[in-house]
TrEMBL record:
It comes from Tenacibaculum adriaticum. This is DUF2200 domain-containing protein. Pfam families: DUF2200 (PF09966). InterPro entries: SP1917_dom_sf (IPR023204), UCP033199 (IPR014580).
Length: 122
């Protein structure tokens, strides 16, 4: 595993949540999970309700703004494992780590993991 570069971190920070969100939907629905489950996972991590989430999508906010406005769940640090070639618990850049937390949760949802495990309640 390698650490993220400044260029990689800047690219992630400047990406809009709205540009990635449809890919999250496709990924989970293709695996038989629902949009409601996706929203439950996003809400758990960020504290956003569906109205706030839709506002952020409509405003085309960057991931930087998205996570600045989020209230990260107190158990987010329990999200571990490899996503996109990076071990999430070892990512040094806070924002990149938060984006990868979200990616990891979506990945776990798509892989059929039980919601209790995804939401770190067990």
């Amino acid at each position: 595993m390698s650490t993220t570069t400044d260029k990689h971190n800047e690219r992630i920070a400047s990406m809009t949540f709205a540009s990635v969100y449809p890919h999250y939907i496709t990924k989970v629905e293709k695996k038989g999970r629902t949009l409601e489950e996706l929203h439950q996972v996003i809400t758990w991590l960020t504290g956003f309700d569906i109205n706030k989430l839709n506002d952020l999508i409509d405003e085309k906010v960057t991931f930087k703004t998205f996570f600045e406005e989020a209230s990260l769940h107190k158990n987010a640090y329990l999200i571990k494992g490899v996503i996109c070639g990076y071990r999430v618990e070892e990512i040094n850049n806070k924002l990149t780590q938060q984006v990868r937390y979200l990616d990891k949760l979506v990945d776990e949802l798509a892989k059929g993991r039980k919601m209790e495990k995804i939401l770190r309640t067990e």
